[in-house]
């Protein structure tokens, strides 16, 4: 296989791993305003400034016309090669935000590649984890701290409840949300990684071992993992040797879930229920702080955001869709149950 052919294949896989389900569209002007506490907010999609490490970044944020009394913020992170606007479009989360009254931020990963050593697009620097076995450039923004800065600054700017900040994400963004659960449980009330549940870096000669020192949350934290058993990009069964992901993937999804049950100290479960004919739910409870660990596994889905079809030509690499349930509804129903403990 020629070098050009290899790059083409890797680029296609990367595009799908980032969930390129729809083209980005311009950010709409906010049409109306609402008052929340001492804040007068524009509603709709808007770019809000977040300062980190001496620079100011614009973060795509959606404020619903009717913000619920819970005043929650969800930070939703895109997959590799994508952007915040692409995550908004591909996930359809704005509709859920409007329905349930929570704000949602769609930040963009900190390093952009032109397609030389990696496929073109934006990537998240998750504590230096390599993608396609290539680490982030040395000058890359430290995205784990950037996302925490987003959480703090948008909560203040929008007069939201700092005890109701949540993280979710797809693929590379899902791995980021797992990292935040491990290291920033004092900031995020709960997390819901989609196609990206981890409980520490993969280690060992075949990357089948969890680096337990890499995930020591400061408290039990509620976590919901969503994954498809037919995912060809980040396989449900893991990848011996790490595949193209190295320490970013490796061990199986079930190993990550089992580790979270132990980390959270859960003593009961799993209780098994059915979400749809193809999606099952397992719940572990009896965890300190009344948190739960939940796993929703689709026997049908590939590398996709449930309830939203993957278009041609990306669907032939991503594997099948599962349209039997809306990931956004499942995620919000879970996240909204949790609030950070009072200081």
From TrEMBL:
Keywords: Carbohydrate metabolism, Hydrolase, Polysaccharide degradation, Secreted, Signal, Xylan degradation. It comes from Nocardioides marmorisolisilvae. One of its GO terms (cellular component) is extracellular region. This is Peptidase S9 prolyl oligopeptidase catalytic domain-containing protein. GO terms for biological process: proteolysis; xylan catabolic process. Its main location: secreted. It comes from the Bacteria. Residues 148-199 form the Peptidase S9 prolyl oligopeptidase catalytic domain.
